[in-house]
Amino acid sequence: MHTDLQARRDTGLEIVQAASVSALNYFSDIDKLVIEQKGKQDLVSDADRAVEVQIKNALLASFPADGIIGEEHGRVNSESGYTWVIDPIDGTASFVSGMPGWCVVLACVKDDEVVLGIVIDPIAQETYLAIKGEGASLNGRALSVSTSQSLAEGSTAVGYSTRTGVEPTVLVLEKIMQAGGIFYRCGSGALMLCYVAAGRLIGYCESHMNAWDCIAAMLIIQEAGGKVEPYETNIMLAEGGRVLTACPGVYSQLENICEQANL
């Protein structure tokens, strides 16, 4: 592993661990949170903003030449070729409702390639980690995706974005159930993607996700042996895009369903 990347893995992990403690402290005192609505089913709290600032400041202190893209704050341009992508609390709706199903997410991109993904679920005390070409782990143990060969052999997560129409998502759900499958949904897209990497879910699809919600976990899936629909990193960072991923035995079946539904 390149020493630059190794340093970012070690420091990035420490930063996300510290941010997860802060997020959990806010979660323990959610009655005091100030919550705003950015759009339909799109919430932000002062916890999101504070945790992102904590991560951003820690990254800038350790890697001042690196770029930063955060969900809640503006972009810092990169001089080193490395750019960090932050989602301080993915699953804010669950978070502010006092439910599990939220996490802290950090990805690192080098020259338009995602090279590091870290996702921490503070409530479950689970740390998902992947480095490009080095495999994926959960709490230090190697991850591998499900060996299922059919949608009827497990649960498939289906996300929904208010930025796209309702009908394609409804059609996907219908077709998954017609194929003998069952669908799963929690408040965090990043966590559902990590569950694919862990073999808990067999696939995931969503019509549109932002980069901070998905690129860290999609690297974790790929490093765990899963298939991810190809995407251009620079476009995903700028605009977001469709996400489709599954274990190898199910990917084609889920891909066909998404195409039929125009997801």
Q: Features of this protein?
A:
single chain; 263 residues; alpha+beta; Fructose-1,6-Bisphosphatase, Chain A, domain 1; D-Maltodextrin-Binding Protein, domain 2; 2 domains; 7-stranded mixed β-sheet; 8 helices; 28% strand; globular
How many structural domains does the protein architecture include? 2
What is the averaged pLDDT score? 93
In terms of DSSP E residues, the strand content is 25-35%
Output the CATH topology of the largest domain. Answer: Fructose-1,6-Bisphosphatase, Chain A, domain 1
Taking the sheet with the most strands, its summary is: 7 strands, mixed
N-C termini distance: 37 Å
**Element pattern in H and E:** HEEHEEHEEEEEEHEHEHEHEH
Helix content: 25-40%
Helix vs. strand class: alpha+beta
CA radius of gyration: 17 Å
CATH superfamily of the largest domain: Fructose-1,6-Bisphosphatase, subunit A, domain 1
How many DSSP H or I helices?
A: 8
Number of DSSP strand runs: 14
The CATH top-level class label of the largest domain: Alpha Beta
Architecture (CATH level 2) name of the largest domain = 2-Layer Sandwich
Uncertain stretches of 5 or more adjacent residues: 39-43
Query: Based on CA inertia axes, which overall geometry fits?
Result: globular
Q: Please state how the strands of the largest beta sheet are arranged side by side.
A: 3-4-5-6-7-8-9
Task: Give structural notes.
The structure is a single chain. The chain is an alpha+beta fold and about 260 residues long. The protein folds into two domains: about 5-140, Fructose-1,6-Bisphosphatase, subunit A, domain 1 (Fructose-1,6-Bisphosphatase, Chain A, domain 1, 2-Layer Sandwich), CATH 3.30.540.10; about 155-260, 3-Layer(aba) Sandwich (D-Maltodextrin-Binding Protein, domain 2), CATH 3.40.190. It contains eight helices and 14 strands. It has helices at about 5-25, 45-60, 90-95, 165-180, 190-195, 210-225, 235-240, 250-260, and strands spanning about 35-40, 40-45, 65-70, 80-90, 105-110, 115-120, 125-130, 135-140, 140, 155-160, 180-185, 205-210, 225-230, 240-245. Strands 3-4-5-6-7-8-9 form a seven-stranded mixed beta sheet, sandwiched between helices. The protein has a five-stranded mixed beta sheet with strand order 11-10-12-14-13, with helices on both faces. Strand 7 and strand 8 (about 135-140) form a beta hairpin. Helix 4 packs across helix 8. The radius of gyration is 17 Å and the shape is globular. The model is unreliable at about 40-45 (pLDDT under 50).
